[in-house]
């Protein structure tokens, strides 16, 4: 169990899921079934999910409910995916997004 | 608030601001704009803010050409640093039917004769300009590279600052309650903050111009209809021109920020001044858009809103002095094109008030044409 994983939550209960391998900017990582992409990245110690298209400032996990657009990433080539509410699937290719996104 | 004005203009949208600016530039001293909300809070700030010279009647071509040339030089004319974001990416207008295609060929001849550099394109050529357009849906297209779109909020600000620097007074959050008249003599306006005595009053109230005409007890055959727009999340630039289709019933542009904004017409839209948003529009607009531009189906919609088209029976504006009340002027009935026509609106109304001849003869846009059976030839190039 990685030390960054959120284990306790006032409302949600977490059950130990099976391993789901995925890639982040070319690195091979492993999340758990039941993870969102963002929760898997957080558990793996990833804090910077992309950079603002204009200012270049780092952007991270913020609202965690699909509202704030801070966690937009490119997933399997699709830009502007709100990874905080996108369930993780085995084999996903997740990339940092540093522009406004280019539609495939 | 001031007690008197030489000219009181009702409506702080793009039309009222343009009229005030043109009058002030011509030397008229004491001009008051009365706006019941904030500047641009009506149709101006809610519109698509496109401007095109590709029209089907000579008068509309000339009016929009005047406005386009004004916006091209706005920076020099206004003498301020406000960027109105006039992006001249052109308008690509798609023909959805063979009949429309024939009409477009006629339109191009007319436009070229008037000095408008529009061209006729095959579906394939149109697809080179907007690659995500499904060219099987169009029979052909026309394109004019000088057409484009502006930021309506910045344009309002630029006009307002220019007008203020020439001495125009602007009263926001001030609502006109009555038009003061003594028999057939115009006396001024009554507002919720007091009366302004003015020998000349202009009705530039956009969607609410009918209410103002009622207060003045003059006839203004207009009605207002809700039109809606929706906006997507931003993406990197991928569509330079505004794309528009009349039978296809769409206009869609990508603004500099990256969002796509789009609208369409719907005869079932209410005409009771309501500004609510509807699910029906969301669904129909999405369908219309993704049928023509399937790739845009990947975009999320982030907003929708509504504004009022102030309609006339021939979908063309009314520029006139009220026959029943001398010195009460109408600049109304823009039928969805008030933003693009604003520069020429200011010009022709200011000239009329000053008793001078405008650069373009707009006498056919009189208010009496609806009574006398003098409707203008139908303009088919409208959404």
Structure description:
The complex is a heterodimer of chains A (104) and B (383). In chain A, the strands form 2 sheets. A 5-stranded mixed β-sheet of chain A has the order 2-1-7-5-6, covered by helices on one side. A two-stranded antiparallel sheet of chain A has the order 3-4. Chain A has 1 helix and 7 strands. Chain A has 104 residues and is mostly beta strands. In chain A, a hairpin with a 2-residue loop joins β5 (72-75) and β6. In chain B, strands 5-6-4-14-15-16-13-17 form an 8-stranded mixed β-sheet, with helices on both faces. A 6-stranded mixed β-sheet of chain B has the order 8-2-1-12-19-18, with helices on both faces. In chain B, strands 9-10-11 form a 3-stranded antiparallel β-sheet, with no helix packed on it. By secondary structure, chain B is α/β, with parallel strands linked by helices. Chain B has 2 domains: 7-46 and 153-221 and 314-370, 3-Layer(bba) Sandwich (FAD/NAD(P)-binding domain); 88-146 and 223-311, D-Amino Acid Oxidase, subunit A, domain 2 (D-Amino Acid Oxidase, Chain A, domain 2, 2-Layer Sandwich), CATH 3.30.9.10. The model of chain B has no long low-confidence stretch (mean pLDDT 96). Helix content of chain B is 28%, strand content 25%. Chain B has helices spanning 14-25, 58-72, 74-78, 98-113, 123-129, 152-165, 209-215, 279-292, 338-354; strands spanning 7-10, 31-34, 50-51, 91-95, 118-121, 140-144, 148-149, 169-171, 176-182, 185-191, 194-197, 200-203, 223-232, 242-245, 250-254, 260-264, 301-311, 318-321, 328-332. Chain B is globular. The A-B interface holds A 69, 78-80, 99-104 and B 132, 233-236, 238, 258, 295-296, 298-300.
């Amino acid at each position: 169990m990685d030390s960054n994983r959120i284990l306790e939550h006032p409302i949600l209960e977490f059950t130990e899921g099976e391993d789901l391998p995925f890639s982040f900017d070319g690195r091979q990582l492993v999340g758990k079934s039941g993870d969102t992409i963002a929760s898997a990245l957080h558990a793996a110690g990833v804090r910077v999910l992309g950079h603002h298209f204009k200012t270049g400032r780092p952007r991270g996990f913020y609202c965690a409910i699909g509202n704030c657009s801070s966690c937009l990433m490119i997933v399997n080539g699709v830009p502007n995916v709100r990874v905080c509410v996108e369930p993780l699937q085995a084999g996903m290719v997740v990339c940092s997004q540093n522009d406004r996104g280019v539609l495939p | 608030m001031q007690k008197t004005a030489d000219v009181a203009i009702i409506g702080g949208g793009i039309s009222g601001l343009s009229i005030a600016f043109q009058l002030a530039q011509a030397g008229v001293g004491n001009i008051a704009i009365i706006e019941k909300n904030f500047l641009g809070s009506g149709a101006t700030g809610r519109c698509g803010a496109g401007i095109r010279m590709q029209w089907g009647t000579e008068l509309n071509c000339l009016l929009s050409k005047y406005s386009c040339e004004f916006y091209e030089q706005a920076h020099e004319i206004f003498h301020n640093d406000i960027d109105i974001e006039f992006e001249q990416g052109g308008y690509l207008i798609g023909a959805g039917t063979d009949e429309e295609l024939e009409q477009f060929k006629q339109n191009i001849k007319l436009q070229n004769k008037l000095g408008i550099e529009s061209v006729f394109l095959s579906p394939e050529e149109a697809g080179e300009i907007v690659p995500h357009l499904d060219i099987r849906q169009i029979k052909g297209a026309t394109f004019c590279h000088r057409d484009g779109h502006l930021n309506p909020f910045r344009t309002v600000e630029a006009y307002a600052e220019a007008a203020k620097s020439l001495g125009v007074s602007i009263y926001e959050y001030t609502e006109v309650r009555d038009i003061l008249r003594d028999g057939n003599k115009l006396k001024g306006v009554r507002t919720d903050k007091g009366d302004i005595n003015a020998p000349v009053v202009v009705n530039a109230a956009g969607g609410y111009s009918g209410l103002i005409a009622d207060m003045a007890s003059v006839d203004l055959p207009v009605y207002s209809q809700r039109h809606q727009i929706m906006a997507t999340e931003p993406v990197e630039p991928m569509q330079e021109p505004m794309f528009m289709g009349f039978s296809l019933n769409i206009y869609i542009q990508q603004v500099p920020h990256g969002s796509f904004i789009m609208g369409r017409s719907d005869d079932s839209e209410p005409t009771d001044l309501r500004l609510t948003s509807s699910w029906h529009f969301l669904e129909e607009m999405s369908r219309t858009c993704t049928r023509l531009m399937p790739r845009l189906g990947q975009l999320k919609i982030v907003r929708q809103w509504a504004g009022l088209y102030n309609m006339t029976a021939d979908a063309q504006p009314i520029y006139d002095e009220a026959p029943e009340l001398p010195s009460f002027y109408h600049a109304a009935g823009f039928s969805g094109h008030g933003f693009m026509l604003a520069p020429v609106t200011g010009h022709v109304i200011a000239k009329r008030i000053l008793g001078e001849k405008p650069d373009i003869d707009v006498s056919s846009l009189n208010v009496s044409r609806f009574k006398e059976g003098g409707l203008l030839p139908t303009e088919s190039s409208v959404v």
